[in-house]
Design goal:
This protein is an alpha/beta fold and about 325 residues long. It is about 45% helix and about 10% strand. The chain is built from 9 helices and 7 strands; from the N terminus they run αααββαβαβαβαβαβα. The protein has helices at about 25-35, 45-95, 100-115, 145-150, 170-175, 195-205, 230-235, 250, 280-295; strands spanning about 120-125, 135-140, 160, 180-185, 210, 240-245, 265-270. The longest helix is centred in the first third of the chain and has 50 residues, at about 45-95.
């Protein structure tokens, strides 16, 4: 085409030279193949090319299947540990005659269960908390919250639990034997109807444990706090220690029931003391405690009260 003599002629097999979609030779690509000495080189058989593609795609699938198998085995072991520990704790609580013995048994079983599922628990600030005559207020994000606190909190804490648990066949007697107190979470007056029993527990020297959100939801975040716990603290003159739980929501989400390994932490901040029993003082106390919890919980501010789920009417 340019009138110059040809230096070399390469006789290549059919379909060796790369072409465009319209059938023209791709000169630049053919030139690179020629310079590399691979123009006309034998091509791999189609079945070998397909096999190589299949093997290349198999590695990621094996990785995913291995991870899924590992997670499934962990979840199975987790449930075996939790179910057997729950049965053991129930038997111990229902048979031991003294409250302090029951709590020692529950604490030991909870710690063993967490160790058995390889869940590390970091504890910060617990040394500054007293063994009695105080109130702990925690964020609530999972059913694992109670297990972690049972393993960590000292003494015989009095959990303030939702009244629905009192009616359950197994949970009701179990919690009563541990000295739990039951309240209507969504009473307009907070815990007004149950305040005498709670004050009696406070006067006995036990620490009170509240989840002032009232419940937890599928959505991550900190809900607003109900006033009941802060009314009790103000009347009884109890200092409130803001508590922060982290990791429990990731370990066991209420909408999935598939446990996953995750590190856990319990953090206790400095006490906040009530300044009065009037509504303004109670609201100020609630907001001060919630601000501390929100600053450390690592979740967004939902900015609203958690409401009770609507009950289904009988058919």
């Amino acid at each position: 085409m340019i009138g110059a003599p040809v230096e070399e002629i390469v006789l290549a097999p059919e379909r060796t030279a790369p072409k465009t979609s319209s059938g023209k030779i791709r000169r630049s690509s053919a030139k690179e193949l020629y310079k590399a000495g691979s123009l006309g080189a034998s091509q791999r058989a189609l079945w070998r090319q397909m096999l190589r593609l299949s093997l290349d795609g198999l590695a990621p699938q094996i990785t995913r299947l291995t991870a899924l198998l590992r997670e499934t085995l962990y979840a199975s072991w987790w449930w075996i540990v939790v179910e057997s520990s729950s049965l053991l704790a129930w038997l111990a609580v229902m048979t031991l005659p003294r409250l302090d013995w029951r709590w020692r048994a529950v604490r030991s079983i909870a710690r063993t269960a967490l160790a058995s599922v390889a869940a590390p628990v970091t504890i910060v600030g617990l040394k500054v908390a007293p063994r009695g005559n105080a109130m702990f207020v925690f964020n609530h994000s999972s059913y694992m919250d109670a297990v972690v606190l049972a393993a960590v909190l000292p003494g015989e804490p009095a959990y303030v639990a939702k009244s629905e648990l009192a009616e359950q066949f197994l949970a009701g007697p179990f919690l009563r034997r541990l000295g739990a107190l039951f309240v209507n979470r969504y009473d307009v007056g907070g815990v007004a109807s149950d305040i005498e029993a709670i004050l009696a527990a406070a006067s006995s020297g036990r620490n009170l444990v509240f989840f002032p959100e009232g419940t937890f939801t599928r959505r991550a975040g900190l809900s607003d706090f109900y006033l009941g716990a802060f009314k009790v603290a103000a009347i009884a003159g109890l200092p409130i220690f803001p508590g922060i739980l982290r990791g429990t929501r990731s370990m066991l989400r209420s909408d999935q029931w598939f446990p996953r390994w995750t590190p856990l932490s319990v953090q206790i901040e400095s006490a906040i003391k009530p300044s009065g029993t009037d509504f303004a003082s109670l609201a100020q106390l609630r907001d001060a405690v919630r601000d501390v919890v929100l600053a450390h919980c690592g979740e967004p501010d939902l900015g609203q009260l958690a409401k009770p789920e609507p009950t289904r009417s009988a058919a």
